[in-house]
Amino acid sequence: xxxxxxxEGVFLSRPNRxxxxxxxxxxxxxxxxxxxxxxxxxxxxxxxxxxxxxxxxARKTRFDLVTVQKGERLINMDAAAPNKVFGEVLxxxxxxxxxxxxxxxxxxxxSRLDFYVENRDTRAFCEVKGVTLERDGAAxxxxxPTERGVKHLxxxxxxxxxxxxxxxxxxxxxxxxxxxTPNRDTHPAFADALSAAVSxxxxxxxxxxxxxxxxxxxRRETAVVL
Length: 226
Prior knowledge:
This protein is of the alpha+beta class.
């Protein structure tokens, strides 16, 4: 996926989950943060960031903060990006060859899962999580407790029990991590739920991404360590 109207800035502060103050073009702008996670290791004063400009007159903020530089690595922070990126993966037949149906936001049981996809041989549900936390070369999810994430994993198990294939997909919004692992320190219940789901037949899939200031693209499969 690609962004338009991108400009560079310097992160100043984040008074709450939804907005950040960024210096750009010689001015301090109030920007919408397109990620409600903690992101404490990313949004540090002085960090180099990239913004997209919107022209919606109903918006209170003119810019969205979508990308940040951490060390030598660019990390996409847009919470909407993982589903768009994985949608491109599905359309290209990288999960199921020659897909005949790709349907986003499909209800199963008590949850709305991110994708339903099928081809001649397989019917599958996929739940997608975006990963922005990196520690010592490992990508971790979540960066804050997510009861909703635990619920989704349990629903994927029910999909398997009902005869569907099911994937728990982790789109790592950065490049060149060594592996993906659930963040047991932050939310042990999610780590346990993922292990239980895999044991029940849910397939884990982690994909890293090539990130530039104005684009993010799925690159390659990354090892999953439970």
